[in-house]
Amino acid sequence: MVEKKKQAVKKKKINSDKKNKADKISWKAGNMLYPLPAVMVSLTDKTGNSNIITLAWAGTICTNPPMLSVSIRPERYSYDIIKETGEFVVNITTKELTYATDYCGVKSGRDVDKFKEMKLTKLDSEKIKAVAIAESPVNIECKVREIMELGSHSLFIADVVNIRVDGRLLDEKGRFNLAKSELIAYSHGKYYELGKELGSFGYSIRKEGKTDNKMQNTAKEVRIKKAAGQSVKKNKLAEKQPNNSKKSNTGKRITGIK
């Protein structure tokens, strides 16, 4: 009896393994690291002409010193400009900029003025000559440190020399809330708006009973509003109470109790 049960369990495990293997399909090696940021990279050539190229192959590579990288095909119009000037600006994209983001990725600067066609505003950078995009909530000014020729793309490794942010995204305490700008991401040929917050960094190991600052502030605001509401309610009730007091012979007011 025991032996039959063991065989049944073993058979069930084998069938389960087969099913799991059947659910997975092997594909040819390729790019499948999604989602990605769809950023608009702006640049200015040595004659003062500016262009925008949309890139998804972009990311942070170092904290100290702050560095990022972008990968560009050598045949792209912006490739030689960045290679010659050694400068560019990474502009974070939003829901409002989605159309322009796509346009700047499929049209070439050889043929059109993307700033003009998309009605985007050129913003002078503080540390480099390449212009930024004023409509973007975050402009990251970069200087190329190294170029690595990898194959279909070349990797531009750059130092972040300055960052400019939209002041409207700062709260009264100076904290930056980028989520308010309605960020977008790129995944397998499509653009998506980022959704609701699922957690904050470190929440998986945070001690029970502790909350992050955002949650604490929200809870505090709720308590303050609740207390204020109760106070107003008490005042209104007090106003409705009948005045049952009367004056004594001495002229002093005596409270009547019913």
TrEMBL record:
Residues 1-22, 224-258 are annotated as: Disordered. SUPFAM superfamilies: FMN-binding split barrel. One of its GO terms (molecular function) is FMN binding. Keywords: Flavoprotein. Residues 241-252 have a biased composition (Polar residues). It holds the Pfam family Flavin_Reduct. Its cofactor is FMN. Residues 32-178 form the Flavin reductase like domain. Gene3D superfamilies: Electron Transport, Fmn-binding Protein, Chain A. Belongs to the flavoredoxin family. This is Flavin reductase-like protein. It comes from Catonella morbi ATCC 51271.
